[in-house]
Amino acid sequence: MDDASRDPAQALARLLAIMARLRAPDGCPWDREQDFASIAPYTIEEAYEVADAIQRADMPALQDELGDLLFQVVYHAQMAREAGAFDFTAVADTISDKMIRRHPHVFGEAAARDTAMQNQAWEVQKQAERAARAETGTLAGIPAALPALTRAAKLTRRAARVGFDWPDAEAVLDKLAEETAELRAELPGAEPERLADELGDMLFVLANLARKLDLDPEACLRGANAKFERRFNAVEAHLSTEGQSPADAGLERMEALWQQVKRMEG
C-alpha cells in the first residue's frame, strides 16, 4: 500500500487507542504513574531530537523522531482527557482555528501579503490573543521553560519592537566588551553569585548580538558544540594511533594536534 492510499485518520485513531490502553487501569504501570510535569522533560527532549534529525538531514530518523514527538502530544491529551480538561480533538481544533485566524489572506478575504506583511500581521494577531488571555505588558507570554539563549533573544526582540534596543551590532559588541571587563574585574576572589551574575550578563548580550546579526543563538551554539566534538574526536583518534590517551598526552600535545585539525579543516 503506497502512502497516498493510507488513511491518516485511521493511523491517528490507532495511536490514540494505544495511548488510552497504556493509561488504562490494567495498562502499563509506568505510563499510568506519569503526569504532565513528569512527561514534560520528555516532550522537550523529543523536540530537540527532531531538530537534530533535521540538522543531519536524516529522513528516516526524522520520521521516527516526529512520531516520538506526536506521541508526546497524544500523551498529554490523554492525561487531560482523564482529568476532564480537554482531549486530542480539542487540541487539533484549537490549532486549526488559530491557523485559520492568523491566515485571513489564505482562508478569508484579506488582501494577499508578502512575507514581511505576514510577519507584521502575525505579531498583531498574537498580541490580540495575549490580550484575550489577560497577558499584559510587552514581555508577556514568553514561556519561562524555553532554552535560556532562545528566551533571551525573544525577550530582547520583544523589547526592540517598542524601541528599547541597540542601534546596531557594533553597539552590542561595545556592550559585550563592557560586560567582559566587569567579569574580569570580579575574578580575583569573587563570590560565585557575583561571577554567575556577570557571566549571565555576557550571555544575554551575546543573545542580543545574535539577534542583531539575524542569527539563532541556539543554532550558533549547537554548531560550535558540533565543531568542538568533531575536532576533539579527531585529536583523540590521532593520539590513539600513537598509543596515547588525552590524559597521557598533556595539554601542549593536544593543543598542537588541535591546531593541526583546524588547518586540515581549512
TrEMBL record:
Its EC number is 3.6.1.8. Keywords: Hydrolase. Coiled coil: none annotated. Residues 34-107, 170-233 form the NTP pyrophosphohydrolase MazG-like domain. CDD domains: NTP-PPase_MazG_Cterm (cd11529), NTP-PPase_MazG_Nterm (cd11528). GO terms for biological process: dATP catabolic process; dGTP catabolic process; dTTP catabolic process; dUTP catabolic process; response to stress; TTP catabolic process; UTP catabolic process. GO terms for molecular function: ATP diphosphatase activity. InterPro entries: MazG-like_dom, NTP-PPase_MazG-like_C, NTP-PPase_MazG-like_N, NTP_PyrPHydrolase_MazG. It catalyses: ATP + H2O = AMP + diphosphate + H(+). Belongs to the nucleoside triphosphate pyrophosphohydrolase family. This is Nucleoside triphosphate pyrophosphohydrolase. It comes from Teichococcus rhizosphaerae. The lineage of its organism: Bacteria, Pseudomonadati, Pseudomonadota, Alphaproteobacteria, Acetobacterales.
